[in-house]
Amino acid sequence: MTKRTNPAYAIKGVYAITPDCANTADLLHRVRLALAGEVRVLQYRNKSANTAQRLEQAHALRKLTREFAITFIVNDDAQLAAHVDADGVHLGVADDSVDAARALLGIHKIIGISCYNRLLLAQNAVHAGADYVAFGAFFPSTIKPNAVVADIELLQQARAGLSVPLVAIGGITLHNAASLVHAGADALAVITALFDAEDILVTARKFAKLFSSSLLLTERSTH
Predict the structure, then answer these.
(1) What letter does residue 71 receive in the DSSP assignment?
(2) Contacts (Cβ under 8 Å, ≥6 apart) of 78
C-alpha cells in the first residue's frame, strides 16, 4: 500500500479566493498582485463562467501559482482540478464526496471541505480523509449574504478537537481578521476585502502580517 504524505502543511496564511471575473487578463493581473503580497493559497472560484472559460482561467492560474510556488485549489470541480493538475479541490456539502474526489485526484492531492457552522460535519469530513476544513460565515458576506453564521466558539472547539488545518471564511476584513487567527484559524479565506481593495498587494501583505506572531510562536515551540 502506498503511504500518503500529509499535504496539510500547505494550508496556512492568506487563502485568496478569486472573484467572478470574465476578463481573464484582468483576473491574472489582480491575482499576480495578491500573490506578490504573500498570499499562501489561491482557490479558483468562478460561478459565472462557462466550461471553456473556466478551463482557460484555471490553466492560466495554475501557471501563475507555479511561478510563485504557492498552493492552487479548484473550487467544487474535482475533474477540473485533475485536468489542470491543481494541488487540490475544495468541496461543499452538495459536491462530490471525499472518497470520489480522492479516487479521481490521487492520494497526494489536497481535499478541503466546507463545514459551515457544523462541527460534526467537520469531524466526519476529517474521518473520511479531508485534509482541511473550512468554517463560516463568521461575518456578514457580500458574496453569500444568506450564508449560515458561525461563531468564534465553534472555531475554538474545532481547534481543540481537530488536527487538520482550519480555514475561516465569510466577510473577513483587516478590521475583524485578528480575532479568527487568535481563535485558531490556520488560514483566512478572503475575496472582496482583497480583490476589491485599492491596493491589492499592500492589502495582501497586511493580512499576511496577522500570521507572523502566530508562526513565530509555533516555530519557538518546536525547538
Answers:
(1) E
(2) 89, 91, 95, 96, 100, 101, 104, 105
For 188, the enclosing helix (H) or strand (E) is strand 187-190
Residues 76 and 49 sit within 8 Å (Cβ to Cβ): no
Mean pLDDT of 181-188: 96
| Contact between 74 and 84 (Cβ < 8 Å) | yes
CA–CA distances in Å: residue 153 to residues 40, 44, 135, 143, 183: 25, 29, 11, 23, 8
The pTM of the full predicted model, rounded to 2 decimals, is: 0.92
CA count, 13 A, side-chain hemisphere, 80: 27
Burial class (CB in 10 A: 0-12, 13-18, 19+), 16: buried
Beta strands in 32-169 (DSSP E): 41-44, 71-75, 88-91, 110-114, 132-135, 166-169
Instruction: Report the percentage of the chain scoring pLDDT > 70.
Output: 91
Question: What is the Cα gyration radius of the chain?
Answer: 16
Domain ranges of the chain: 9-221
Q: Which residues pair with 74 in a beta bridge?
A: 44, 89
CB 170 within 8 A of CB 136: yes
Of 35-39, 64-68, 127-131, 147-151, give the lowest mean pLDDT range: 147-151
Is the distance from CB of 35 to CB of 12 less than 8 angstroms?
no
Q: Which fold has domain 9-221?
A: TIM Barrel (3.20.20)
